[in-house]
Amino acid sequence: MIKVAPASVRRTVADRTEPPVGGRFVLGRHASLLVSAGVVSHTLWTSAAPALTYGLYAQEWHLTHTVTAGIFAIYPIGVVVMLVGFGGISDQIGRRATMLGGLFASLAGALLFAVAPDVSWVFGGRALMGIGVGLAASPSTAAILEFSSPKRAKSAALVTMGAQAIGFAAALLLGGALTEYGPWPTRLCFRVLALFLIVLLIGTWLLPRHTPGGATGDWRSRMPSVPRHVRRAFGVSSTAMVAAYTFGVLVLSLGGQVEHDLIGSPNALLNGAVLSLFPIVMGAIGIIARTLAPRVALIVGALISCSSMVLLILAVSLRDLVIYLLATAAAGGAYSLLFVGGLQMISAAAPERNRGGILAALYLLSYLSMGALALVLGAIATTRGLSFAVDLGAAAIILMNVATLVLATTPSTTSPSTAPPSGM
């Protein structure tokens, strides 16, 4: 799997992989793709890692819905801050260096969770995880595209979404088991996550030193930007991604309490298994999503997502677990269709030298909406009740799906002949 990189390996990524320094070992294309997918998976693992410990923190430290939602919200806020300041940095210093920085920050955050004596440490750990994901999300997605065959853009989108599903499911299933049956309920799952991050750091260190065309090695902050000819595709993709990502607020921020009310069980593994229906269906539907044209995937995904939100509202109001399971499964399928369709569309339109910044802008909007919605819904759940907060969150997601439908069904006004070539 690991070998000294010959010239043939160094040419695998757009002929711009630097030669090994001091004879260091370098991963080949397939191993590099696997490591990049691992970095993507850590973004959802770190996002979902505390989902099953929020209730334990609330009991131990007597926290309100507002505080637990704040713990969730500081994560996307950290992501947003890094995307605003450094969203395009991987286009300047390379994917590998940016991912290494992100993984180090995520590791520091996991270690704070693993030893947290009070809620302030949890806030600090969550902020560091947000910083790590803000640095690593767009370059790892771009790396998957660049380590994949140029003719397999759909496969690259599927690998990205599949990595997210695996990370999400691992956080919920493994985290649930360790939280329920492990010796340190609020700490062991984060120690396991820290070990995973250490393995990823080693793998990322061995990646080729690929830098996109036009990279300068400049470490100064780079805000994400979207070239004019890509903005139409970006608009469609961004509304789809925001609709997909904001459901994570309902699953991760409020979902644990919703499930506790519906299942009536304090068992973390059982609650995690129910929550994991979302990423399991997400991964399964991804196989179907890759066969669809991007616009078809977006339209079908938006319609299913709207249906899942209606089911969620009914489930919470009727306190019906079966309807809740249907809503979660439908939302997982919708996420897969929206994410894969949106990523395929933006990947086809984005030139490589701007790819990191464009993907960072996409993630920026997604995480910004997550953070804002988490804070608002947390405050509403505290003052007006959990059911009302879920209703408002579902309504907001339905509106984003309607916007996705409008943009996906409206013909583009930009003809291919007027768009600049990808190398410009």
Give a structural overview.
The chain is mainly α and 424 residues long. The chain has one domain (27-208, 229-411): Growth Hormone, Chain: A, CATH 1.20.1250. 75% of the residues lie in helices and 2% in strands. The protein contains 17 helices and 4 strands. It has a two-stranded antiparallel sheet with strand order 1-3. Helix 8 (153-181) runs antiparallel to helix 15 (321-349) and helix 14 (294-318) packs antiparallel against helix 17 (386-409). The radius of gyration is 21 Å and the shape is globular. Mean pLDDT is 79; it is low at 1-22 and 413-424.
Task: Name a few traits of the molecule.
disordered N terminus, 424 residues, 2% strand, two-stranded antiparallel ribbon, disordered C terminus, two-stranded antiparallel sheet, mainly alpha, Growth Hormone, Chain: A
Secondary-structure map with pairings?
Blueprint: E1 2-3, H1 7-10, E2 17-18, E3 26-27, H2 29-48, H3 54-61, H4 65-86, H5 90-93, H6 95-115, H7 119-147, H8 153-181, H9 188-205, E4 209-210, H10 231-253, H11 255-263, H12 268-275, H13 277-289, H14 294-318, H15 321-349, H16 355-384, H17 386-409
Antiparallel strand pairs: 1-3, 2-4
Helix pairs in contact: 2-7, 2-8, 2-9, 4-7, 4-16, 6-7, 6-9, 7-16, 8-12, 8-13, 8-15, 10-15, 10-16, 10-17, 11-12, 13-15, 14-15, 14-17, 16-17
